[in-house]
Amino acid sequence: MEPAHTLAAPTLFELLLQAPEAQVEALSEALDALDALSVSVTDADAQTPVEQALFGEPGLPAPKAGWQRSLVQALFASEAAACEAQQLLRAQDFFEGCEVCALRPVADTDWVRLTQTQFEPVPITPSFWIVPSWHEVPAAALQVIRLDPGQAFGTGTHPTTRMCLRWIAQQPLAGLRVLDYGCGSGILAIAAAKFAAPLVDAVDIDPVAVQTAQFNAVHNQVQLQTGLPDLAQGPYDVVLANILATPLKLMAPLLAGLVGRAGHLVLSGILERQASELQAAYAPWLSLQIADAEDGWVLLTARAP
Ligand SMILES: C[S@@+](CC[C@H](N)C(=O)[O-])C[C@H]1O[C@@H](n2cnc3c(N)ncnc32)[C@H](O)[C@@H]1O
């Protein structure tokens, strides 16, 4: 078994938010997208005279996602991930009316067990799997990325990552130059290299993600050029970016400008209801279409002329 370098940190970090009922669902989905290990919602007014009970019919889900004032607790594997989630959430339109109550370490005495039980091998296609280092490779897995959950987003368990991976697995990438913008763990860049792309750049604003991507590339026997965003110098045949909708909108001129002639732009991290805003933001350069959808998230792709 390979050493699981990312399991060394014994502490989880809690991001505690207060949110009005209408925002709880969007907030929980976004925390999930930001690689929270778990998200739980409780009544902010519990044990007070205005406490509300939420009862569903027996056998049916609760009638609402949250209480009038909900406490949303998300656990992260690192302080950096919790801080980044906080910053990205603050920039989202649905954060209005929400507030951050705490960002603090929480003791976790059985982190290895918790992590290992939460991350099983993930099939992307019947023959392409993401497999943690402590698992045997499933017999059906002909193409494999070995990846452990750690300090950077991207384990293959989230729909936004899975949709990008499915897209990569369907493309003839031989001879193409690929950029993974916002690489996190490097999972998309590693997949592109495994699916025959000869030149792959992976960039992130978070230096820990850059390091993690390089570590994961070495452990998967692929070559990536990793670095901070300045490393990205177009034109690329494929630009992949799985970031949230607000930063993707702001980065429209930059990302569209990195795509070469007949190149592909692949954007993820976008909720269904945000697709048209993104299409409008990129319209001066590229015509984004919905190429895939999963659990309320969409994958938007465009081909340059
Ligand atoms: C949702 S994670 C995606 C990770 C991985 N590519 C995947 O698909 O699972 C988004 C990543 O984008 C990075 N990021 C956020 N804003 C960025 C920006 N303006 N420039 C570069 N990277 C950014 C974050 O640090 C984070 O690692």
List the helices and strands and how they pair.
Blueprint: E1 11-20, H1 21-33, E2 38-43, E3 69-76, H2 79-90, E4 99-107, H3 111-118, E5 122-125, E6 128-131, E7 143-146, H4 159-169, E8 177-181, H5 187-194, E9 199-203, H6 207-219, E10 225-227, E11 236-242, H7 245-250, H8 252-258, E12 259-271, H9 275-282, E13 289-294, E14 297-303
Parallel strand pairs: 6-7, 8-9, 8-11, 9-10, 11-12
Antiparallel strand pairs: 1-3, 1-4, 2-3, 5-6, 12-14, 13-14
Bound molecules: S-adenosylmethionine (SAM).
Give the name of the CATH architecture of the largest domain.
3-Layer(aba) Sandwich
In total, the number of domains comes to 2
Proportion of β residues?
25-35%
> What is the number of beta strands?
14
Could you give the order of the helices and strands?
Answer: EHEEHEHEEEHEHEHEEHHEHEE
What's the alpha carbon Rg, rounded to whole Å?
20 Å
Q: Please, what is the CATH homologous superfamily of the largest domain?
A: Vaccinia Virus protein VP39
**How would you sum up the major sheet?**
7 strands, mixed
**Relative helix content:** 25-40%
Main location: cytoplasm
GO cellular component, one term: cytosol
Keywords: Cytoplasm, Methyltransferase, Ribonucleoprotein, Ribosomal protein, S-adenosyl-L-methionine, Transferase
Function: Methylates ribosomal protein L11.
